Amino acid sequence: MHRVKVRVAEDALDANATIAAANRADFDRAGVAVVNLMSAPGAGKTTVLERILGDGPTIGDGVRVGVLEGDVQGSLDADRLAHLHVPVVQLDTGSGFGGECHLDANMVRSALPLLPLDDLDLLIVENVGNLVCPAEFRIGEDARIMVSSVAEGDDKPLKYPLMFRTCELVVVNKVDLLEHVDFDLDRFFYHLQAVHPGVPHLEVSARTGQGIDALRAWLARLPDRVGAPA
Amino acid sequence: MHEFSIASAVVATAAKHAGGRRVTVVSLRLGALRQVVPDALAFAFAIVSRETVCDGARLTWESVPVRVRCAPCDRTSTLERLPLRCPRCGDGGVAVVAGEELEVESIEVEEEAACTA
């Protein structure tokens, strides 16, 4: 027996990236823009979704929205969204090797047959509440939105740089609580700039509705920005 | 513990290149911007590699420092810590050119030596 060195030089997540690209191609063919919605547990992802979709299944100028629910509490979040009259598909993340801490491209791929893609213009994928793992795995999304709430620390961007660096929009939620917490908005944005200079952000309150219209408008513009093929 | 998912991906990548031979060493390049904890990854690797061609293999890693390129300065600098700004001019419009790697750089495999008896 002797030992031989074999050069590999391959990204460890290449397999995930390949499946993510296949997902993206399928979404593009169907003309669907895809958002990967991420946050820590309890930052308000589901409540923000409820607010955005509260006026019906379309936003902006007739943009048809669907939701792929990947958060882990069984079908709790899907049940919360059931009254909204938008297509909601619950992803079962209870299989695999401790894979419940994030969605990966393969899990999303398994849900494709369940999604009415031809009837959608925008698909919002609610990822598992976690600031570490979801950032590592692309799922075939066009844009990543992360929700960070003022009930968390204003140093979050420094603690979870990958998450804050890889998103196209940062939503600061629960701003109605600012007077009750020690969260310093200026300090948060200063840290955010350090990690991801120039990233757009919105201040919202899912509870009062503040900023929800602006978020809805940002989402409604996404299919055009992505240039989904006709 | 996304290290388990990543460890599984590392094992799969190594196995793909091992061609059925037993793997004895897996060498990684880990960028400083990736939130991968090497010790946690090694622990996860030891578990998920059981009963694969990587069973018993040693995991080694090289940490890749963060390097940013600043267009206005026309320079590339190494950063020891955040912020992601050009250390010379303070510009925040830098491009990250290194430090995001999560790469299987090489593997070492066992081969049958030619029989000389």
- CA-atom Rg of chain B in angstroms: 18 Å
Largest sheet of chain B: 3 strands, mixed
Structural class of chain A: alpha/beta
Beta-strand proportion of chain B: 25-35%
Distance between the termini of chain B: 50 Å
Q: Write the H/E string of chain B, N to C.
A: HEHEEEEE
Shape of chain B: elongated
Strand content of chain A: 15-25%
List unreliable stretches of 5+ residues of chain B. Answer: none
Q: Could you estimate the helical fraction of the residues of chain A in percent?
A: 25-40%
Run of helices and strands of chain A: EHEHEEHEHEEHHEHEH
Unreliable segments of 5+ consecutive residues of chain A: none
Radius of gyration of chain A, in angstroms, nearest whole number: 18 Å
Number of strands of chain A: 9
Describe the structure.
The complex is a heterodimer of chains A (about 230) and B (about 120). Chain A has about 230 residues and is of the alpha/beta class. Chain A is about 30% helix and about 20% strand. In chain A, strands 2, 3, 4, 5, 6, 7, 8 and 9 form an eight-stranded mixed beta sheet that branches. Chain A starts with a strand and ends with a helix. The mean pLDDT of chain A is about 90. Chain B has about 120 residues and is an alpha+beta fold. Helix content of chain B is about 25%, strand content about 35%. Chain B contains two helices and six strands. In chain B, strands 2-1-6 form a three-stranded mixed beta sheet, with helices on one face. In chain B, strands 4-3-5 form a three-stranded antiparallel beta sheet, with no helix packed on it. In chain B, α1 packs across α2 (about 40-50). Chain B is elongated and about 60 Å long. The interface of A and B includes residues 12, 15, 158 and 160 of A. β1 of chain A pairs antiparallel with β6 of chain B.
